[in-house]
Amino acid sequence: MTEYETHEHDVLVIGAGGAGLRAAIEALAQGASVGVVCKSLLGKAHTVMAEGGIAAAMANLDRADDWRSHFRDTMKGGKFLNNWRMAQLHAQEAPDRVRELEQWGALFDRTPEGDILQRAFGGHSFRRLCHVGDRTGLEMIRTLQDRGVQMGFHVYMECAVTQLLRDGDRVCGAFGYWREQGRFVVFKAKAVVLATGGIGKAWRITSNSWECTGDGMALAYDAGAELQDMEFVQFHPTGMVWPPGVQGILVTEAVRGEGGVLRNRLGERFMERYDPEQVDLSTRDVVARAIYTEVREGRGTEHGGAFLDISHKPPEYVKRKLPGMYHQFLELADVDITKGPMEVGPTCHYMMGGVRVDAETASSTVPGLFAAGEVAAGLHGANRLGGNSLSDLVVFGRRAGLAAASHANRAGAGSPGTAQLEEAAREMLVFFERPEGESPYAIQRDLEGTMHDLVGIFRNKEDLERGLEKLRELEERAEGVRVEGSRLFNPGWHLARDLKSMLTVSEAVARSALAREESRGAHSRTDFPKTDPEWGRRNIVVARAEDGMRLSERPLPEPPAELKALLGESREA
Ligand SMILES: Cc1cc2nc3c(=O)[nH]c(=O)nc-3n(C[C@H](O)[C@H](O)[C@H](O)COP(=O)(O)OP(=O)(O)OC[C@H]3O[C@@H](n4cnc5c(N)ncnc54)[C@H](O)[C@@H]3O)c2cc1C
Fold first, then answer.
1. Full-prediction pTM beyond 0.85?
2. 263/250 Cα distance (integer angstroms)
3. Is 70 tagged catalytic?
4. Ligand 1 close to Cβ of residue 77 (< 6 A)
């Protein structure tokens, strides 16, 4: 029998982005022993890339703002497919979570009176995004990480989880490997919090970091949890389009928030045609489709995008408010954004779907398994508003940590049994044992192309069916992947495993997109261009069945009368 390096905690948090760190801090505060596992170094999680800010109705500039208007904007942005209770808790608790970050040392930009400064963002009716220039994620990670280390969580970095371990129907830990040395490691835990982020790396043009391979969603699915809203993938309207090596890198919405204007090749402010009310500050789904349409109809820029211009503002203002963007364009594209426009186009950015969770506790449908942050579904419905992810991370990260610690307090330690461990190890070793087989890189390239071309911004039945067919072929090819070399420092091996997650999640996205025969939020069907009120009453849920993936529809819970009244006439379906 193989001996595995083993660590034991009350609560195991998988992921060290904003959601994972906030969950870990809360579980620690409840007296639990907490382990945090992450694929990259502590401080390098994808959250560090967040730029524009964290949404919270603090009303520091616009006194009329309050949780009710934040709730309404979030529901309206999500085309009312959101879990209303999550949207309510999020809007109510976000200001406290921001104040708490400030108490823990986060240095937000300030108003002359000394309050936290807030900026405008697409779909928010008031200036609501607390920010640190355009480097808000960095400040958030730094703050949470310092707090967690000070409180004493154990961090296992550069360690990837490949399987959740179960005892009967409950989760009792995780199996993984050290990415540098390739050694296997077992984590035993009474409760597990998934905080593994999104799946953007399955698309060719993406703003997401290398970590975003959908691992948490696939791990949860394999462990028997339900996924929800998988058809809703957000394409951010403004990614870099030129030069090719930097395609997809995000151009923060803060550029538009600070007064940036979109124009097509003819110099027209085309957003006036697509959203006369909000124009450049329309929601991301609308702006992404508008740019895509302008390009398709021949009004795009030389490299297939639109112009985004902030050069009418004083150079010092641009450099102070958008220092990251200023340097990004200067260094990567040789463009001085204080003097001329940027070229931008849509990039895969955010996953609204994910693990189906309970609003109060962030618990999944599998006992002992919790999920928070981008890996979880519900809050954002059909489309996320900018700034609502960072607030999601701290609101529901905290709730997940609290509930996981309380679960751990009640649960005994489970045991995975040796067969499960041996099977998890075998799954990782098989790549080296095949005498011949395909490289994982070729399959990844074809997966990105398939998702980009057939499961992208605009979808239709024919493309989605072809996409599913291609995914089936890719799954077959992935079963024959061979990896060269040893387990030491082997990126090909990491990718071989990541492909499994990406393929599972991509299939869930394509199947759900095919099932939803309407257009809503980020999901645009050219063959069903209208929003259908009937579909507005249902979420699509994906679960694992004996014969593969099973889809079902679940009625969307109705908000209580007082919240319905808040939504008023804006409720369209
Ligand atoms: C460029 C950019 C700018 C953005 N700006 C904003 C913004 O201004 N405001 C806003 O609200 N949102 C913004 N977003 C979105 C937001 O940053 C993300 O949605 C959010 O940070 C996700 O946080 P998370 O904690 O859920 O996961 P992540 O930050 O993605 O962290 C995931 C963690 O899980 C770990 N992990 C993953 N798989 C495994 C595994 N198998 N084993 C072990 N560990 C694993 C990773 O190593 C990582 O530590 C932006 C996104 C991008 C790409």
1. yes
2. 18
3. no
4. no
